[in-house]
Amino acid sequence: MSRLYPDAPRIGVSVLCHRDGRVLMVKRGKDPYKGHWSLPGGLVELGETLLEAAERELLEETGAKAHLEMPAETFDSIQRDADGRVSAHFILAVFCGAYRCGEARPGDDAADLEWVPLERLEDRLTTPGTPERVRRLLAQERR
């Protein structure tokens, strides 16, 4: 299953893990968006629920665990090349939860990792919409 120029959308998960006004973010080590800061996540494996995928990806990429239950948001991420062809298409379920345990360290596809204060989200190159998504989902969780 190719991630670039796929024959069908790929289903993935993303995890907004937060702790003391900070968000756990990873610097992507692979395309698409290599070198951009993002929420940890990845593709759902065959036979795996969305929740299982979210828990696995968070642990693999960061070594952390969070209190996760249901997706907080689902969205399409579609990129096109200069000719208008779809170069990537992901359907992403975003989970949001408070940090539970684990020593945060970059692993798997993550080139780097950091607990980013909310006021510093715009100070780095992120995947499209990430700062806005983080603020919106954290505001929803507080209600």
Describe the model.
Residues 8-139 form the Nudix hydrolase domain. Its cofactor is Mg(2+). Belongs to the Nudix hydrolase family. With 143 residues, the chain is α+β, with helices and mostly antiparallel strands. The protein has a single domain, classed as Nucleoside Triphosphate Pyrophosphohydrolase. 18% of the residues lie in helices and 41% in strands. The chain has 2 helices and 8 strands, in the order ββββαββββα. It has helices at 50-62, 130-142, and strands at residues 10-19, 22-28, 37-38, 41-43, 65-66, 71-80, 86-101, 110-117. Strands 1, 2, 3, 4, 5, 6, 7 and 8 form an 8-stranded mixed beta sheet that branches. A hairpin with an 8-residue loop joins strand 2 and strand 3 (37-38). It is globular. The mean pLDDT is 94.
Record keyword descriptors for this entry.
Nucleoside Triphosphate Pyrophosphohydrolase; globular; 143 residues; 2 helices; single chain; NUDIX domain-containing protein; alpha+beta
